Amino acid sequence: MDKQAIEAAKISGHKMTPAEKKALRQAKKQEKLKGSSSSEISVQVKEATKKLSNTSISPQQPKTVTDDVAEQKPDGDTTMTTVGRMGEKLESSILNTNKLQHVETTKSKKPQLTKAERRALQESQRATKTAALPSDGKSSVKTPINKPEEKSIDVKPSKDRVTPAAGIVSKRDSRSLFGHLPQRDPTLRSIPQLLPGCGLNLTPSSILHPVILRLGLQYANGRICGSNARCLSLMSAVCQLIKDHRTPPDKELRRHLEEQLALHMAFLHRCRPLAVSQRNAIKHLKHHINKSIPVETSEYEAKSILVDTIEQFANERVHLAGTAISQIAANKIQNDDVILVYGFSSVVLKVLQHAFNAGIRFEVVVADGRPKLEGRVMLKRLITHGVSCSYALIGSLSHLLMGGRIHKVLIGAHALLANGCVISRCGTALVAMVARRGGVPVLVCCETYKFSERVQTDSFVFNELGDPQELLQHNGDPRLAAALTNQSSSYLVALNLTYDITPSEFVTMVITELGMLPCTSVPVVLRVQSTELTE
């Protein structure tokens, strides 16, 4: 009888004979001589025996058929035979379990590497990853760190989608490039159409003045053009606004007047963005509202002071300034000179009329450009005054200015910036550039109230967009009309810029009421004007 059977019989409560006890002692001695492996087997034997005793031979469990048979045979042979069978089954199960554990242990164990071997393995893995990278040396696979996994969506290209060729800017991209620029809506032709889009909270106490409403409609329709004309019309409307103003009993004149002025200027800005000349005029008026009117002044006297201030500004800074410029510029015109002008400018027109009235005989070439063709107004007024004129489009500038026939170029200005650049109607920069190339002097006629502290080097930061349909004139051709008015075309963008920027290096001299100045003198003039306001 082996050791496992004896242990099983002992645990189960069987009374051992002296021979069995001797065999058990010998088995224990042999177990001590074995290594750790035999001790583990004995532990497994004990655990398995306990489980067997609890399940099959436990006295607490009900008796089975085998127990009844064993009780009927009181001799010890039957009992030993049963225990022997149980021990054989237990031994076979333990051997199978040991085999499985040996296989799992062999699989889980990895060969232990030395430090040098681990380093060599890491170097080989790193070299393999480097060889798998693209040619630019950057990995195309990015491992997210502490980020949730994102589902990848496969977007299949649509058959109807058309990819534009290289170098072609789509219609959407072109519009977004100039999307920040204000553009007048040509459909706004009446005051009820203008008021809802102003973004103004109009109350019964803040109703817009009828003069301002009419002026805004004229700005939106393009009936009043030109910096001087727009500024003079604004000054006239503001004078009427101040005269009709009534201050509520619970408010102060200056504060309430500033609120009403800001409200009306916002409406005019909605109709068309205010010009630099208009902004400077309103700035001058606000300064006098805060500084020139004492608190104890009555409302009638205060309004009279403000009206006189506005009329003085319009007379001195616009009318008298234009007269002074015409006298200074007329001295630069000689007999038999050929002078080129571009578009229409009230100051340039006054210069030419003054020179002609002084007895100087010269010829004027009026260059014009689409879409407004304002040069026709200049041509009509000069011919009416008796001046000899020629008319040409801007496309023939190179022929006119490079041929040596033109002696001087006179152009007007919308504004003069602090860095010396000139803002004028679109096309002026081209005229100045070609004149500079042909060696023809360029004289800019500009009043000082058009000087601006802003600095700008291109036509994209600040500009206005005109009606794009003005560029799509087809002259009655039905095929061209169908092509130009096709709004479904994604490659047709009508960009109608109102102004452009002329760099200072293309301008020879600026003629102002203060005299002939270089473009770099703009900051000095602005400093002197601000000093006069503070005094």
Explain the overall architecture.
The structure is a single chain. Helices cover 50% and strands 8% of the residues. The chain is of the alpha/beta class and 535 residues long. The strands form two sheets. It has a seven-stranded mixed sheet, with helices on both faces. A three-stranded antiparallel sheet has the order 5-6-8, covered by helices on one side. Strand 5 and strand 6 form a beta hairpin. Helix 3 crosses helix 5, helix 9 runs antiparallel to helix 10 (227-243) and helix 10 (227-243) packs antiparallel against helix 13. It starts with a helix and ends with a helix. The model is unreliable at 55-80 and 135-174 (pLDDT under 50).
Short key terms for the protein model shown above:
single chain; alpha/beta; elongated; 8% strand; 535 residues
As a percent range, the share of strand residues is 5-15%
Strand neighbour order, sheet with most strands: 3-2-1-4-7-9-10
Structural class: alpha/beta
| Main pleated-sheet profile | 7 strands, mixed
- State the low-pLDDT regions, or none: 55-80, 135-174
